[in-house]
Amino acid sequence: MKPSFYPTRAHLLLCTGSSCRQRGAQELLAGLRVELESRFWAYYRAGGNLRLTASGCLGACSFGPTLAVYRPEGPEVQAWYYAATLPLALRVAEAARSGQPWPQERRFGA
User: Fold this and answer.
1) Sign of CA dihedral 26, 71, 68, 85
2) Each residue of 2-36: pLDDT tens digit?
3) 51-96 residue pLDDT tens
4) Which runs of consecutive H residues, i.e. helices, occur in the chain?
5) Nearest residue to 51 (alpha-carbon basis) of 2, 20, 96
6) SS3 of 32, please?
7) Cβ–Cβ < 8 Å for 19, 61
8) HSE (CB half, 13 Å, CA atoms) of 1?
9) Pairing of strands 50-55, 10-15
């Protein structure tokens, strides 16, 4: 028997390294997971296609929680955010789902 495969529109990675944890990454991860599931955006829900992964250090320790997002196509395939909050993470998730441009707020390099 093969495992189930769920198509992915985008992958969100949230740093849960020690510095980001001290700045609320675990709470943000839990809240974002609940929101993605309740909106049916999580890849394993009917109609969902976003993956959320707790990541090790993403290298921006003084500015966490750090959120990175990748998608296979669109105007830009990746974006990285510092001091991520739940409202910002949800705007990033919506952009990932819809193929819209990434939000600029707290974006590295923007």
Assistant:
1) negative
2) 887 778 999 999 999 999 999 999 999 999 999 99
3) 999 999 988 888 889 999 999 887 789 999 999 999 999 999 999 9
4) 18-22, 25-38, 86-98
5) 96
6) helix
7) yes
8) 2
9) parallel
